[in-house]
Amino acid sequence: MAISSSDMTKSIPHKLPPDGTDHMVKVEEFVCGWGSAFINIIITFPINKVMFRQMLHGVNSQHAFRQIHREGMQFLYRGCLPPLLQKTTSVSLMFGIFNTNKSYLDHNFPNTFYITKLCLSGVASGASEAILTPFERVQTLLQDKHYNSKYRNTYHAFQELRTNFGIKEYFRGFTPILIRNSIGNIFFFGLKDPVNDLFPPMESLSGKLFSNFMSGAFVGALTSTIFYPVNVVKTKMQVCCGTPFLSITEGFRLIFNERGRSIRRLYLGVHVNYSRAFLSWGIINASNELLKKMFFNEGNNIS
Asked: Where are its TM segments located (predicted)?
């Protein structure tokens, strides 16, 4: 059934506030967030795998690349399905819930400080993303070479974890993910538009896509670098199976001691991380605006 562009731009009523006006769910933010994450994962997954090996084993990028090269092309996209399912849903929730909550707060509490609304919306979207921890958990196991022969694929890993260790095992690393997503969303949404405004106004589509790419890339790389040690600890917490759960402080203490009590070694792989994040969040931000323009006729900076 054909859908007109005017129909597509309509938002979905969510609830009716006391003043009788409609609060609208920003469905276009959910849809375009999903699409932009899909494009990004297909392009950047191999880079992410190199970074993961550095996080886990504390090796340099050349060693990690040679490791993956020796395993062969058949294993290059092994572990891609969990992030494809997780990241597309996560970015959809990130953009959708943040903008829906921000719109609600702007409408119902116009006199509230901007920073308060930004923080509340960021925490709400980050908490919703953290529900998807099981996908990150399985991705971690599938990307570790020690589990290449133990878990055949995503479904098998989920099944084995539940059968052998219970549902709770899916949620290892939940706390660092919650912290990373909530505070990270506040940084991302609070900075991307101000950074975009630093670029000279551009009338062409390519120019506007470039400025959206660069603002998303810069803020994404900055945020990802700030939270890199949190991701390192999260990876250490999630790579175990059947052992007692580590708290975030226990995980940090363990990996800090393993890396010779060196802060610098906690950042092994960070250059691959910010390069991947620069490309990844640039793609997500630019394609999100482009998809809104193409399918909903309302990109914030593309007209």
From this structure: 170-189, 209-228
From residue 233, give the alpha-carbon distance in Å to each of 126, 249, 254, 255, 266. 18, 9, 9, 7, 9
Give the SS3 label for residue 285.
helix
Q: How much is the CA Rg of the chain, to the nearest whole Å?
A: 20
Q: Which pLDDT does position 3 carry in this prediction?
A: 42
Q: Find the distance separating the first CA and the last CA of the chain, reported in whole Å.
A: 27
Query: For residue 176, what are the contacts with CB-CB under 8 A and spacing of at least 6?
Result: 230, 231, 233, 234, 237, 248, 251
In this structure, are residues 131 and 90 in contact, taking their beta carbons and an 8 Å threshold? no
Record the tokens describing residue 16, joined without a space: 């009716």
SS3 category, 108? helix
CB 134 within 8 A of CB 171: yes
Q: What is the pLDDT of residue 13?
A: 41
Q: Which two tokens stand for residue 64?
A: 């990690």
Compute the residue count for the chain: 303
The torsion angles phi and psi of 215, rounded to 5 degrees, stand at -65, -45
CA distance linking residue 88 with residue 80, whole number of Å: 12
Backbone angles phi, psi at 167, to 5 degrees: -60, -35
